[in-house]
Request: fold
Amino acid sequence: MHGTVISLILVFTVIVMAMSVSAGLIWLERRLLAVLQDRRGPNRVGPFGLLQVLADMIKILSKEDWIPPFADTAVFVLAPAAILIPVLMSFAVITFAPGIVVADLNIGLLFFLAMSSLTVYGIVLAGWASDSKYSLLGSMRAAAQMLSYEVFMGLSLTGVIMLAGSFDLREIVESQEEMWYVVPQLAGLMVFLAAGIAETRRLPFDLPEAEGELVAGFHSEYSGMKFALFFVEEYLGITLISVLIVVLFFGGWLGPLLPPLAWLALKTLFFICLFILLRATFPRPRYDQLMSFGWKVMLPLALLNLVITGGILLAAS
Reply:
């Protein structure tokens, strides 16, 4: 009974923290983009514009909840939840600090990869159920992009798994006490970062939502609460990929002086800021360039990293 209560408290805490971080990221992104573009950014609503997030939420939730007349209503309504739930489930296997994890699975990394694969179903369903050519084309782009880059994401993690000898995220962090895996797995980190940007559909890899070509892609027909769920999922995805980069390549919660949770939060914040800076720095490539980059650059690099890691481990044994 006592263990069940603690587990429920952990689940509630993780969900609240994830939702709070995604809300805070809206403000952080707008402020950072303003700094990079030499303008003020949100600064009218509350101190430092902090209440702008609340104003945006009130605005988006008060909009008309419209469903296209020829849409498949049931699928159209369920699709946003089908995208959001796998991302939230992925947080369950993240070990934030010693003893702070919802589900300490010995296959945590496999669970994350499985959940990331499920996200694409919600996007395809949203595009198909909207009965719009822009939504359908956006969902097809998203499906091809996400399925392709999942291959490279999985291959980029194989080197880490070989070094740690485990799929357990807690054991992977503990195995980095002497050296973070960013040193022997720099190529793996580069591939994982690129795949993470593609999986979250962020600039410069936001082809499924390219406004100039597809209006807003697979969520063109959504409004109100359902559109807000797509928005939340995007920021949760950024947070999830940033936490995983820290856990897999930068020693997770390991660090001197500060508490473990503080180290994890600081390292994660750095990579979240990197995601935002990439949006303000790189132009969007053409779709064929994106796919070509994946199969002609990412795949050979991931395979080369795998072969070198295996060779070094064999030589060492």
In short: The longest helix spans residues 2-36.
